[in-house]
């Protein structure tokens, strides 16, 4: 049904923009149209911007259609309920802007181990066709000019971090040509060069904190890689950088001055906004929620390892790649729609079930990233916005999968409503006992990537396509990252090689798939009743599989 009121018309426009659809009916289900938690958050932020009203994210799940949201907005307008989230404003650069809370914490951790590469965020793309290298260099310069966080360095003054925003900061494009090497040597040379570029230390005080490289593999065949230090960017930022880079390249290649929409704010403006917003009642209310959420849950996961945990981790890691078959992917979507969950919630529930089976713990904690871009003004920015939420898994009372899904949904929605408190502030406030051998509060990370790197087409002749690789590091004991492509859920597990063998991780993920299959085939089954191949606690060490290659070079030729 078409929109019937002005409010429905405006809401349908917001949904169309966020979902990338031409039109939306007032009774269409947001999640059936391809929506997920991240896009739902964008809808809520645009409603706030357009109507000046705060709607809870939960509203997008209770009855996910335009007509329902329009009724909620009308009711809020009748009550006179104005938004409690202040707008972001530009700050005077003559006064030194503070670091954001996340930057402050990361700066401190960097001082402890300045050469550790797991705070580096890399992306590599395959470029095919007649590349204009001069236009690419100019495009990199333009992206750095556009985003002042890429022109920022961090000095130590009296033991504290101070940032300096430079008017100009050169980011050279480092070029190497391996096209003349024999085929038998080229793969190794390209792999080594890119991994070295990813792992090379950054100097926070001198900068730049972004690195760009171009490798010529063959005639009209290149790999471009781009590395950010986490203090100036996050995973979402990579998509922003590539889109901006493509837009600038297209303009420079055509001999015109590229015109991108002017940014409404910069990262330093967000840092000031964040500190002001979290300075009073909001901080106390969110802290109170998290204290209640985490009360009584062990801070360590009793996951058996192949080797004793070293007192000081090396952060060396391996990668296991996996994919879920099409029938299971379809089953996850169908179950999610029936249960009123997102695929992330369903996949997380299965992961909680797996950890419960392996550890025997009824309550456990898993970290998950959230974009943290709660204002439309900061969506097109490069910067360190991502936050980490601590998701509590509740397997008490030997639940069915259906009950576990319900619990996971409720916990997730509550966490989303309290996502603004930075993880590092939560750790400080809870006075978590420091143990350098493990991450505080959680040791296992789980993510569904809702904002993948874009595939960008340049001047109808060049194509950017992402390239998978592994830098050989692991920040957590286990970190599972899943994305959907070509109708399949695919993913990777980064694991600490201090603790786990490749075969153990491979078996772990086979059991994960088995639990997901059980959950989608019969949600009424009890989590602890599903048989697994070997010991339900996963102790058998009979399997042996080779670890994933550091660099998926074969993927370079398939795009």
Kindly name the structural category. Answer: alpha+beta
- The portion of residues assigned to helices is 25-40%
Count of discrete alpha- or pi-helical segments spanning 4 or more residues: 15
The N- to C-terminal Cα distance equals: 40 Å
Q: Globular, elongated, flat, extended or rod-shaped: what is the shape?
A: globular
The number of distinct structural domains comes to 3
**What's the CATH architecture of the largest domain?**
2-Layer Sandwich
CATH class categorisation of the largest domain: Alpha Beta
* CATH-derived topology of the largest domain: Chloramphenicol Acetyltransferase
| Strand element count | 14
Summarize model confidence as the mean pLDDT. 89
Percent strand:
15-25%
* Arrangement of strands in the largest sheet: 4-5-6-1-12-11
* Computed CA radius of gyration, to the nearest angstrom: 24 Å
CATH superfamily of the largest domain: Nonribosomal peptide synthetase, condensation domain
Please trace the helix and strand order, writing H or E for each element.
Answer: HHHHHEHEEEHEEHHHEHHEEHHEEEEEH
Largest β-sheet summary? 6 strands, mixed
Stretches where pLDDT is under 50 for at least 5 consecutive residues are 535-559
